[in-house]
Amino acid sequence: MKKKSSQSKKTPKKKRATAKKTTTKKKSAKKKKRFLKKELEIYREKLLNLKDDLIKQIQEISDESLRKSQQEASGDISAYSLHLADRASDAYERDFNLGLVSAERKTIMEIDEALKRIDDNEYGFCQMCKKPIAKRRLDAIPYARYGTKCQKKIEEEQER
Ligand SMILES: [Zn+2]
User: Fold this and answer.
1) In terms of domains, do 50 and 113 share one?
2) Above 50 in pLDDT, residue 21?
3) What is the spatial distance between Cα 121 and Cα 117, in angstroms, rounded to a whole number?
4) Same structural domain for residues 68 and 83?
5) Which domain holds residue 144?
6) Are residues 81 and 140 part of one domain?
7) Local structure of 133: helix, strand or coil
8) What's the 33 CA to ligand 1 centre distance in angstroms?
9) Is the pLDDT of residue 6 over 80?
10) What separation in Å is there between the alpha carbon of 67 and the centre of ligand 1?
């Protein structure tokens, strides 16, 4: 049996790469990250749920208006004269519903924009002053484009 002696002692010290592994994934370094990925996913989820709800609501409203207009189309004249008052309120309701639907459509668009901002890593920043939007605000309105201050400014300008 041979004694291994001299050989094993001379293990050359491996130079360990002390430099940290640099992840070469493209990351726009200058952009400050507002949220963790996990948080963004929660917002995304919220936005998607909200969008689903809105789509359902629009669907319900248009189903109902369709049903009503079909009723009207097949309705007889006596019913018409008897329910003039009803019909007036129907018309009002229809206008109201139309307004509602367009408001909801607009919100859906805002949601889509917000989802895009998540993908672009711009979510959570005011589109006007580029400052972070308060988390509290985002929790209430996840599709908020502007911080409270800028939003107020915009609304004031619109009122003029
Ligand atoms: Zn702002």
Assistant:
1) yes
2) no
3) 6
4) yes
5) 124-154
6) no
7) coil
8) 17
9) no
10) 44
Number of domains making up the chain:
2
Mean pLDDT of the region 119-140: 95
Mean pLDDT along residues 86-98: 79
pLDDT tens-digit map of 143-159:
999 999 999 999 999 88
Q: How far is the CA of 70 from the centre of ligand 1 (A)?
A: 48
In a domain, 91, yes or no: yes
Give 142's DSSP letter.
T
- Report DSSP letters for 57-70, one per residue: HHHHHHHHHHHHHH
d(CA 89, CA 95): 10
Mean pLDDT, range 24-43, rounded to an integer:
72
Output the pTM of the full model. Answer: 0.68
CA 150 to ligand 1 center in whole angstroms: 4
Ligand 1: centre distance to CA 46 (Å) = 22
In a domain, 63, yes or no: yes
